[in-house]
Model the fold of this input.
Amino acid sequence: MLILLPPSEGKTAARRGKPLDLASLGHPGLTAARERVLEALVTLCEGEPAEAAQALGLGATQLDLVEQDAGLRAAPTQRADRVYTGVLYDALELPALSAAAKRRAATRLAVTSSLFGLVHPGDRIPAYRLSGDVTLPGLGPVAGVWREALPAVATAAVGRGLLVDLRSGMYAAFWRPEGEVARRTATVRVLHEQGGQRKVVSHFNKATKGRITRALLEDGRAPRTPVALAEVLTDLGWYVEVGEPGPRGTQLDVVVREL
Done:
């Protein structure tokens, strides 16, 4: 089973640590694409800060993030599970997992990254700022780079197991499973039901996905189909509705009534 998460916009920078070594990251098949994105991002941020900020979708008060990206090659790194922060990761509480759940996370958990493509908890990375909808000068849309580079690597990472896709739409566009992998893909959507009406609430969508991930890692079972995953989630206390299988997978709606 592979649980695929979106990255967080906010990240915690390491205070000390070795500089970035792309060759040390998992999935070496992505090294060339990682180098291309990194070079384009650093080159942009070493230029005019205001222009770089505009290209990255940053405001005038966020020039420190431009400076941060300019220094990525020399910046200290730390484990990815300490870099990514925010609502989903706060709910997931990776550092507080049991020893067995941490071992599972090392192989069952991956984050889709605009800079690195696919990152596992133990990969050592620096804090960076690069959203999935950015177009970098000399490179083009970041999403386009990963649409070319990720399919073979991500398919191999899923292997013969189930893909639990918790990514947001922006990052789902980096790679969409096809064929046999799609038949083993469960795309999870969280809906808040109140007064007979259902809607997606961003904050609680992220928090619930973090709690689901935590529960699956602690539980230890490895369901092999979307229906089997729905049964596990039901056992763990969620109300789940299973959609019809489609060309990109099967959607599971997790309906919550209390936030």
